[in-house]
Design a protein that fits this description.
4 strands; two-stranded antiparallel sheet; Recoverin, domain 1; 2 domains; 11 helices; two-stranded antiparallel ribbon; globular; mainly alpha; 208 residues
């Protein structure tokens, strides 16, 4: 089981409290046994219970050895660091992992929007979107950025398809609904959800 801490006692991030365990059981699809196993693995990599940006970047570099992960990793880190204290604790980590593993298409699109919404004000502007596309190109080691493939042209296409009121601001609902409707946008902005949409459509057809 988790450990109890008093209300006035500063929480040690390496400790999984009963409250943490309750939060994760309520908000993820993991069992208590699975949560404890994840926590044990997390502490092996992060004995202090704190996953800092440098450690996080090292993990990303393993998955993208050919690309430049720094910029995109910074976007993801800020999205996972819910309380903005410049490190990710176990609860923040497992909540994000659960969406990646178990979330439906809309859940994953919400996570994608959260990654792009860097100041967490519920909207993304044109300038932010250019930075996002540049970071994604770096991650994929994409060198062809001329003409229609330039980040600016990509953003022009995205804004045209997503931002129906032409105010150069994309809200979370616009982002999610636009990506649900538009396969091209999903491939650009949330490439990991493309097969998920196909699987969910297939399952829905089988159930009819």
């Amino acid at each position: 089981m988790g450990n109890k801490t008093s209300g006035n006692e500063k929480k040690d991030p390496a400790i999984l409290t009963d409250e943490d365990l309750k939060t994760l059981k309520m908000n993820t699809q993991y069992t208590e046994e699975e949560i404890l196993a994840w926590h044990s693995g997390f502490l092996k990599d992060c004995p202090t219970g704190k996953l800092d940006k440098k450690q996080f970047l090292n993990v990303y570099r393993r998955f993208y050895p050919e690309g430049k992960a720094d910029k995109y990793c910074n976007f993801v880190f800020k999205a996972f660091d819910i309380d903005n204290n410049n490190w990710i604790d176990f609860t923040e980590f497992l909540l994000a992992v659960d969406v990646s593993q178990h979330g439906n298409l809309e859940d994953k699109l919400k996570l994608a929007f959260g990654i792009y919404d860097q100041n967490k004000d519920g909207q993304i502007n044109r300038k932010d979107m250019v930075k996002i596309i540049e970071a994604m190109y770096d991650l994929a080691n994409e060198e062809d950025r001329a003409g229609l493939k330039s980040p600016e042209k990509r953003v022009e296409l995205i804004m045209h398809r997503l931002n129906k009121d032409k105010d150069d601001i994309i809200l979370q609902n616009e982002f999610i609904q636009g990506c649900l409707r538009d396969e091209l946008l999903r491939k650009i902005l949330a490439p990991n959800t493309a097969t998920l949409q196909e699987d969910q459509t297939t399952n829905a057809n089988h159930e009819q």
